[in-house]
Amino acid sequence: MIATSGSVLHALRCIGGAGLARVAAATGLDRDAAESELIDLAVAGLVTHEAGEFGGWSLTADGWAVDADRSAAELAAAGVRTAITAAYDRFLVLNPELLDICTAWQTRRIDGVVVANRHDDAAHDARVLDRLADLAGRADALCTDLAAALPRFGRYRARLGDALAMARSGRTEYVTDDFEAYHTVWFQLHEDLLATLGIPR
Predict the structure, then answer these.
(1) Pair 179, 22: CB distance under 8 Å
(2) 68 near 85, Cβ under 8 Å?
(3) Fewer CB atoms inside 10 Å of the end CB: C or N, the chain?
(4) Considering the entire predicted model, what is its pTM?
(5) Tens-place pLDDT, residues 142-185
(6) Domain residue spans in the chain?
(7) Taking the CB of residue 147, how many other CB atoms lie within 10 A of it?
(8) Confidence class for position 1, pLDDT limits 50, 70, 90
(9) Side-chain half-sphere of 56: how many Cα atoms within 13 Å?
């Protein structure tokens, strides 16, 4: 059992298969530290690496089991299941709204026909970003409460805030189409809540 590699192991549980850069971004570790922990986890048989353009790091079956045990133990030791469950219920209220915003960002209706959004209508994109900013304020409060219960959830607050700031600066890919896009980080938060509470998807 590798006590120092919990953040990396759990990040892979929430991300799925990922390269080193994504693991480092998710954990807040620098690349060298993240890589060192990944190698330790691989030696322990908890993660595996596949080379190639579409390869990356992922959990083994033993890695999934160890992370599940650690997540359950962390939740029990902190005594915050009720708080995390209440936060998850709030997340479920926000989730359909976020998905609707993402759909509005990716598509537009022109003359009754749904087409891909080419981001050539500044007014449309501004309206969608305003909706995202409104939701982000509520998501920020949610992540603040989650971090008060389990500090590791604080990373989501920072990453979601960064994604929104990038999108509002004109980097349109940071809404839905980047590894650190708002929707991507939101999906990982969902996975983390499920993993923490032991809820199957």
Answers:
(1) yes
(2) no
(3) C
(4) 0.92
(5) 999 999 999 999 999 999 999 999 999 999 999 999 999 999 99
(6) 3-73, 79-197
(7) 17
(8) very low
(9) 15
